[in-house]
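Below is the data:
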Amino acid sequence: MILEAAIGDAYGAGFEFQELDYIIKNNDLTKYHKHGMYTEIYKRYTDDTQMAIAITELLLEEENWNEIKVADKFVEVFHRDKRRGYSDRVYNALDASTNGAAFLKNINNGSNGNGSAMRAYSIGLIKDVNQLLEFCEIQAKTSHNTAEGISCAKRIALAVHFYKYKLGDQTSLIEFINETLKEKEIYKVTSPIDMHGYFTTQAVIKIVSEANSMQDCLKIGIDYGGDTDTVAALCMAILSQKESCEKILPQFLYDDLENGTYGKDFLIGLDHKLAAKFQ
């Protein structure tokens, strides 16, 4: 799950907010592309995966969560491996903080962006739905303490949960999310896909609900444009749990992905730990 999300993140970063003509010309799944703003993001994952790593480590280490514990983990993971891709709001707050308490003081947590959703997918492995929803809300409040920030995190975690625990015989993904969250959303894709939580999760849920191939989904999700790295990362994470989905991706995506201290092998290790905990 984490590896697939990182691949989507790193590949999608090369197309983030690029012109649609550029995307259509270059999104052929043959090589990684450099990020339009940060040249150092090349064959490397961004803040999306780094924050998901923080959530995953906390999930593996802690049974009881609160905002301080979540924020502590965000600060720890950021400072051990600083990388770009964060909004200035979050990057500057993390950079100025030595612990979670400081981060919670430094951050403006009134955002409706998709940051709380982009990191929430591993929470979906929790079998108890009430605990899943509680953890989503706790982590969202650290940086996205808004109705949209909280609900969009829950949608992503619930999508993983739906496919992990094979609930498709009982209902559809969208029906499951609407019933659980007491919503009546009609999911659709608006291109280019906006980085606000509502539009990102609308698109991602719609795309994965119809997908039967990770490779096709990766291309399709990026072709819509907009916040391509987040969309690709979330789609890959969710589809890694979808049984009726072909999970073959081009080999270069694995071979060329970064493999430093917190690169490919580290991500594979996290996936093994998640698999052991959530059998």
